Amino acid sequence: MDDSNPRIRQANARALEILEDAKAAAHWIETPNVSLGNVAPLILLDSDEGLRRVLAELSAIEYGLPI
User: Picking from 1-5, 15-19, 35-39, 43-47, which range would have the lowest pLDDT averaged per residue?
Assistant: First the structure.
């Protein structure tokens, strides 16, 4: 992962906060996600809108909302 990208750093930090495991957070960021259109969250982090979608998905995971 390119930690120089602030969106990636923000999403990774949030994933780590929610999943509480660095390996799990990295795996989640790099794995295609059905709720994100079968795209890995990492791919979406090239835009502010993509970051918003990734953070919303992480919030859904945190609060146990249907995805």
Answer: 1-5
